[in-house]
Write a structure and sequence with these properties.
Blueprint (H helix, E strand, L loop, with lengths): L1 H27 L11 H16 L3 H17 L7 H22 L5 H22 L5 E6 L8 E5 L18 E6 L1
Helix pairs in contact: 2-3, 2-5, 3-4, 4-5
């Protein structure tokens, strides 16, 4: 009888732990709700503003979006994440904030902003893989950027609008992956 009760208690614990983790993921896998404070969509939206500003060769708007992104990272509530997810998120965000800050203080240096944007895009990709996007988004790739090494970016539209070359080569690239 003790073995049965112990087994039952362990089963309930594991089921409730799994359910709690699934609920946390589901709670963050939301569509963008502008009123939802600490929603990962706020981070994604700031990143997309940055991407679009670089695609339009607008360093001033890119800097503003970079600063907005830093604030979105700082405002994100991690309490619904598991300890493991929190650790991974912290590792991603520490790096991403640094890149967003560099973009924010270099409004007059678009090439420098684009260098940091390439690294930031990898971090945003990792964050989306961790938390979900809550909507359909695209992982695009520019094979020519970085001396032919290539670089990814995240986009909300299927049309290629290259943030690495802006207006000079706006359609250079391809969709590599679709995420939700």
């Amino acid at each position: 009888m003790k073995t049965f009760l112990y087994s039952l208690a362990c089963s309930i614990f594991f089921i409730s732990t799994y359910s709690t983790n699934a609920d946390a993921k589901q709670a963050y896998n939301l569509t963008n709700d502008q009123g939802a404070k600490n929603n990962p969509a706020t981070i994604l939206d700031a990143y997309l503003k940055l991407k679009n500003a670089l695609g339009a060769d607008n360093g001033k708007n890119a800097a503003a979006a970079g600063n907005e992104l830093v604030k979105a990272f700082a405002g994100f509530d991690q309490t619904r994440l598991t300890a493991s997810e929190r650790k991974t998120y912290a590792e991603i965000v520490d790096d991403a904030k640094e890149h967003a800050r560099h973009i924010g203080v270099n409004a007059d240096n678009i090439p420098h902003q684009r260098e940091h944007f390439g690294l930031l895009s990898k971090d945003i990709y990792d964050m989306i893989k961790l938390l979900g996007a809550g909507r359909e988004i695209y992982v695009d790739n520019c094979p020519m950027y970085n001396k032919g090494k290539g670089a990814i970016w995240i986009s909300e539209v299927k049309d290629i609008k290259n943030p690495y070359f802006g207006k000079a080569m706006s359609t250079c690239g391809e969709i590599r992956e679709t995420l939700h």
